[in-house]
Structure formats: structure tokens, C-alpha cells
Design brief:
With 304 residues, this protein is mainly α. Helices cover 61% and strands 3% of the residues.
């Protein structure tokens, strides 16, 4: 009898061959496979890696793993020309589409069409690989040669660049804890720009560091929901709005008069929590608070 992962591969391969899954259609995620087949996430990831190795499926950012187009199915590239950069890029594609749970040295090797052991000549292991991925991701945000004038405009720019990076790579929010910052060169460059924007405004060093962390925590706190949102919808098949509607329907609003009043006053289209809009909504009062701190310190330092 075939191994569990091989049975999964054969099932999905058959569905593709019979046209049940057409090019561009999303195939089951690692979590969906694990739930349906009763296997571990690692086994599910191995099945998807095998299908990717065959060129039947491909990972697409924000779309997940989809059936590859028949006319453009890639062939395994072989070990010739294998580099650390190619390994990191392949790993980021997997994590972007399936999350860090689907990432392993085996899955990266399968995606590149090389042996697993060959990847260890360039990367020490998965932990090292994730750090290289994170540094590469933070390095995607290009700082302009001529940055905007004024501390607030520069603060806004750094925050938005960080949000864009986390938007493209939702897994980033889960590997950089605030209390154990990572000394990644490209991440540190963002921190340097935030501190440089505040330099010379009369703030003490502790406040400057706190404000730097506050901006990052705003980005990270929202970005942590991006991957959870995608995984929850993939696992349940229920959209965010459907889930909210079900929760509100289960509430006894007689015990929540203010909440009921707010809900009743919503526009006809209801309330849609758009994370991009909410990021901007939160960024402005955050910056207003920084501005108030600067003004307060200047008043305190002014001669009597």
C-alpha cells in the first residue's frame, strides 16, 4: 500500500488529469489536506512538494497553491546553478502561498528540483533559512534617494514600507518578537531611519526607542492577522463576514445596549474591517501622539 503522502499525490494528480482541477484552480492547502486525510501537516506539505516537483502545481503569493498552466509547467531545474539566493527565493514563495508550516528544506528542494542534501551546502537548516528569508523580505522596501522632509513624513514612509513588506509576506509577523528583536541588517536599516527621523527633536533616548518599537508593533500587530485570516477561511470555507454574522446572531443584544445601538447605526453595507484601511486609521493617531510628545518636551525645555 502506498504511503499516505503518495495517496494524496495520486488523488490530486487524478483530479488534475480528469479536469476536476483546472489550471489556476486552487488546490487544497496543507491544513485542508491534513484535515481531510487525517495526516500531519508535514505529510500534507510533503504531498504538495511532490506535486510541485512534478510541475503540476505552483505556489502563488496571496493565492495559495494552484494548478500550474499546462503550457508553462516548469521542469525541475537540477542542481546546476543552485545558489543561496535561489533557495531563499523558493522558500519565500512557499511561505507566501502556504505559510511557514509548509516550509521545510525538503519542500524547498522539491520546488527547485534538487536533492534535499544539496540545499544544506548553501543554508545551515530551516532556522537559518527563515532568517535569510526575513532579511531578504525587509530588503525589498526601497528607501528613496531623496526622502521626504520632516520627521512625520519620514515616519509615515517607514511605517508604510514595513506594512507593504508584511502584506506581501504575512509569515514575517510571526518570527520577529518585540522583546527579542532580530539583528537582521535590512530590518535594522528601517529602525535606523525611524530613529534618524526623531533625532534632534529633543526626545530622550528611551522615548525614541519606545516610539520606534511602537511603530513596528502597529505594523506587526495587524500583520499577524493576515495569515490567520487566510488559514481560517481555507480551513472552514467561511468568509470573515459570514463568521461575524454568525457570531452577532448568537449574541443577546438585550444585554449589550451600546453595542446594539452602534450596530443599528451602521450604514446599509455594514462594517467591513479592511486591514489596509485600518493600518492607515491607526497610523494617524499614533503619529498625532508622537507630535504631542515632541511639543510637550519642547514646552518643558523652554526657558521660564
Amino acid at each position: 500500500m502506498a504511503a499516505p503522502y503518495q495517496q494524496i499525490v495520486e488523488d490530486i494528480r487524478r483530479r488534475i488529469a480528469e479536469g476536476e482541477l483546472a489550471p489556476g484552480d486552487r488546490v487544497p492547502s496543507t491544513r485542508q489536506i491534513a484535515m481531510k486525510w487525517g495526516v500531519a501537516l508535514a505529510t500534507a506539505a510533503k504531498a504538495l512538494a511532490a506535486l510541485s516537483h512534478e510541475g503540476l502545481v505552483e505556489a502563488r503569493p496571496r493565492s495559495g497553491t494552484v494548478v500550474a498552466d499546462r503550457g508553462h509547467r516548469r521542469r525541475p531545474a537540477g542542481e546546476h546553478g543552485l545558489t543561496r539566493e535561489r533557495i531563499v527565493a523558493a522558500a519565500m514563495e512557499i511561505a507566501d502561498a502556504e505559510g511557514l508550516g509548509a516550509l521545510s528544506m525538503r519542500s524547498v528542494a522539491a520546488r527547485l528540483g534538487v536533492s534535499t542534501m544539496s540545499t544544506y551546502r548553501y543554508v545551515g537548516g530551516k532556522d537559518d533559512l527563515v532568517m535569510l528569508m526575513a532579511d531578504a523580505a525587509y530588503g525589498e522596501a526601497a528607501w528613496p534617494e531623496t526622502p521626504p522632509e520632516g520627521w512625520r513624513a519620514r515616519f509615515e514612509l517607514v511605517a508604510r514600507l514595513l506594512w507593504q513588506v508584511h502584506r506581501r509576506h504575512p509569515w514575517l509577523a510571526h518570527i520577529t518578537p518585540l522583546n527579542r528583536p532580530l539583528a537582521l541588517p535590512n530590518l535594522m536599516a528601517h529602525g535606523e531611519r525611524l530613529l534618524a527621523a526623531l533625532d534632534g527633536l529633543g526626545l530622550d533616548p528611551v522615548t525614541m526607542l519606545n516610539l520606534q518599537i511602537l511603530v513596528y508593533s502597529h505594523v506587526q500587530g495587524l500583520a499577524a492577522n493576515l495569515e490567520h485570516e487566510a488559514q481560517a477561511q481555507a480551513a472552514t470555507g467561511v468568509s470573515d463576514q459570514e463568521w461575524v454574522d454568525a457570531q452577532v446572531g448568537a449574541m443577546d443584544l438585550r444585554r449589550l445596549p451600546t453595542f446594539a445601538k452602534v450596530l443599528a447605526g451602521l450604514p446599509s453595507e455594514g462594517y467591513d474591517l479592511d486591514l489596509d484601511e485600518f493600518f492607515e486609521f491607526g497610523l494617524q493617531p499614533l503619529l498625532d501622539g508622537v507630535e504631542a510628545l515632541i511639543a510637550r518636551d519642547r514646552r518643558d525645555d523652554a526657558p521660564a
